[in-house]
Every structure is written in C-alpha cells, then in structure tokens.
C-alpha cells in the first residue's frame, strides 16, 4: 500500500518561496503589466520602433515573471491534492507524478531564489557576450566555438532570444571570436559569473600524434546599453571601417560593404557587426555594443578605485575560472565555487544552471565576507 508523505518537503518549499514572493512583489509586477499593456496598445506605438520594441519586450518579460510567481502557489496546492489522490487510490503512477512535480517546483523556486540575489545596478539587463580564442592554436579556436554553442544552447533551453552580432572564423576550424546578445530579464546578472578564462584539456582531434592538449578561451559579459545611460562617444574618438560580410572559409554572404568595424581610439576597444543586412543597422548595433563595453569599463574603474582606497586590490576573478577536462578523465569544475560535473557532454550541451547558480551564490558570499 502506498503511503506517500512529502508534507515536510512541501512545507519547506512554501517557506523558501515566501521571502522570494516578497522580494519579487507580484502586486508591483501586476501593476507594471497594466502600465505596459496600456503603452503597448497606443495607436502611435510603432512610430518609434526602438521604444516599441523596449515596451513589448519588457511586457513579455514582466508577464512571464508574474506568471511564474502566481503559478507556484497554485502548483503547491495542487501537489497536496495529488498526494492525497495517490494515497487514497493506492496509485503508484500518481505518486510518481507527485514526486516529479515536487522536483520541478523545487527547481523553479531555486531559480527564483538565485534571481533575488541579482541586485547589482545592471543585473536586470540583457547581456552582450564575447568569446575569444586564447592560447592553444586551432584547439583554442575550436574550444571558443564549443563555448559559443554551449551558451546558445543554454539560452534556447530557457526560451531566451539570442542574436549573433559578429563572428570571426578561424582558418582551420572554430572561431577566433564571436559576439552575441542574450535578450532576457537578468541575463547580464545571470551570465556575468561566466566571465573569465575557461580551460579545455583533451586529446586533440587536430594533432596527428593524438597527444593531450590544453587550450584557453576568454569570455566577456557586458550589460546591454540603454539610451538613458548616456555614454557620450565623440565622433573623433572612433574610427569606422566597412567591409563585406563573410562566412566560414571566406564564403561571401553579402555582395555589399555592409559589415561595420568600430575602433574606439582612446581605449583601443574594437567592435564589429555583420549580422544585419544594411550598413546603418550594423553600425547602430556595433555602437550599442561599444557603449556597453565602455559602460562596464567605467564601472570596473570605479570599483578598482574603491578597492585601492580600501587597500584591497586582489582581483575578483582568477586567470582560470573553470576547467573542462575530457582526458584522461571527464570532469568540468568551477575553480571558484567548487561545483563540478562528471558529464562534460551535458555541460557543453547547455546544462549550465547549477554552475551559474553556484557561481552567483559564491559571488554573493564572497562580497559579503569582504564587507
């Protein structure tokens, strides 16, 4: 006879959810949805395309957050009913369904709990991510492309929109660099813990001797700029070059000089964009990325000054923040939080949630300890 008793686990999840609900404030979310719905229904909304896109995007994201909050209490109530049905009907299938639902609710609440830890100034923003191949030759370029796929798969699994802004392909395999945007609430706060140097150890498929090789790739994460941030970039501070877009192997994908490369002369920052069809669109996208990087640089300079005044100039991130080992054993390990996985294939297929959440908690704990 089935005697399913998960009342303690359900009570624990209710207790964890209560403060999360208070922080996310569904009443405020509901009011914001109403405001955005009114704005979205304005007949002249699309007279300003950029504003219309911001309004509709925020409306979609806010509705999703509100729905998640509202559904959790309903799911917990329904779960208690499901347990009763399993016990009364002595039904193992219903009991299994209840256990699976408890696991699903636990994950949703854990994800929301992590989101409440993202209280930085730019954490709610979409993210612009750049991956660059480092030391390791063709293996490093291949590794950079593996990371690009990993983050793209992670975003797709969460329903986040991904826009590739620029890709520079390597001659033999992989990419020299790639820049893409993840448009989702808290994408920057969530993915910022992925910034740093990643290391891959494996038996190289590009080495005829089949020897073990170590290669590196750098991941940069910046918040997407908003017009209200007002990062002024004088025209004489930038150099704009135009060129033809190209794909792998140099294959032409555009017969006009529509791709744009912008160099910020004072800092040496270079941004390219070839995703859009027109030069004007590519220039606008590249300027947004440049402004995002300058915004992050300004923020880092301010933080560095604060640390110097405090007498603590230790970098927040080590040279290698994560190792992916495929030989002689299989292991992915975060060198900051200590979280690890024995299944690199799943990680490279986008299974990053545990690494990201442990990284966010590690960062929060480290910041608290340094205060």
UniProtKB/TrEMBL annotation:
- The protein's predominant localisation is cytoplasm
Show the PROSITE patterns listed in the entry. RF_PROK_I
- Residues recorded as bearing N5-methylglutamine in the entry: 251
Q: Report the residue ranges that make up the Prokaryotic-type class I peptide chain release factors domain in this protein.
A: 244-260
Sorted alphabetically, which InterPro entries does this protein's record hold? PCRF, Pep_chain_release_fac_I, Pep_chain_release_fac_I_sf, PrfB
- Recite the UniProt keywords alphabetically: Coiled coil, Cytoplasm, Methylation, Protein biosynthesis
Instruction: Reproduce the UniProt comment on modification after translation.
Output: Methylated by PrmC. Methylation increases the termination efficiency of RF2.
- One Pfam family from the record: PCRF
User: Where does the source fall among the domains of life?
Assistant: Bacteria
Q: Where in the cell is it found?
A: Cytoplasm
Q: Does the keyword Cytoplasm apply?
A: yes
What is stated as this protein's family in its record?
Answer: Belongs to the prokaryotic/mitochondrial release factor family.
Instruction: Give the protein name, as stated in the record.
Output: Peptide chain release factor 2
Q: Which organism is it from?
A: Gulosibacter faecalis
The taxonomy runs: Bacteria, Bacillati, Actinomycetota, Actinomycetes, Micrococcales
């Amino acid at each position: 006879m089935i005697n399913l008793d998960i009342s303690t686990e359900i009570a624990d999840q209710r207790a964890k959810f209560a403060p999360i609900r208070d922080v996310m404030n569904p009443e405020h979310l509901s009011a914001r949805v109403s405001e955005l719905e009114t704005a979205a229904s304005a007949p002249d909304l699309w007279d300003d395309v950029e504003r219309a896109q911001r309004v509709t995007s925020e409306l979609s994201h806010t509705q999703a957050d509100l729905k998640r909050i509202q559904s959790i209490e309903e799911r917990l109530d329904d779960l208690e009913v499901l347990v009763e049905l399993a016990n009364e009907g002595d039904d193992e299938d219903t009991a299994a369904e209840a256990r699976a639902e408890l696991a699903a609710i636990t994950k949703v609440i854990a994800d929301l709990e992590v989101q409440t830890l993202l209280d930085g100034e730019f954490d709610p923003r979409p993210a612009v991510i750049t991956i660059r191949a480092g030391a390791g030759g063709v293996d490093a370029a291949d590794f950079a492309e593996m990371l690009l796929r990993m983050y793209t798969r992670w975003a797709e699994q969460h329903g986040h929109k991904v826009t590739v802004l620029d890709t520079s392909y390597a001659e033999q395999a992989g990419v020299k660099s790639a820049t893409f945007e993840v448009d989702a609430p808290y994408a920057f706060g969530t993915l910022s813990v992925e910034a740093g140097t990643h290391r891959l150890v494996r038996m190289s498929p590009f080495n005829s001797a089949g020897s073990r090789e170590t290669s590196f790739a750098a991941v940069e994460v910046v918040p997407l700029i908003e017009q209200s941030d007002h990062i002024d970039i004088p025209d004489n501070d930038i150099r704009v070059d135009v060129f033809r877009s190209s794909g792998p192997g140099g294959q032409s994908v555009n017969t006009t000089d529509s791709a744009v490369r912008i160099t910020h002369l004072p800092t040496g920052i270079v941004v390219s964009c070839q995703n859009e069809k027109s030069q004007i669109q590519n220039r606008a996208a590249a300027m947004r990325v440049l402004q995002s990087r300058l915004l992050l640089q300004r923020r880092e300079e301010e933080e560095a000054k604060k640390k110097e005044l405090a007498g603590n100039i230790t970098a927040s991130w080590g040279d290698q923040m994560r190792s992916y080992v495929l030989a002689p054993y299989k292991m992915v390990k975060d060198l900051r939080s200590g979280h690890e996985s024995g299944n690199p294939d799943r990680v490279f297929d986008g299974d990053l949630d545990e690494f990201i959440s442990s990284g966010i908690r590690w960062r929060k704990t480290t910041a608290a300890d340094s205060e």
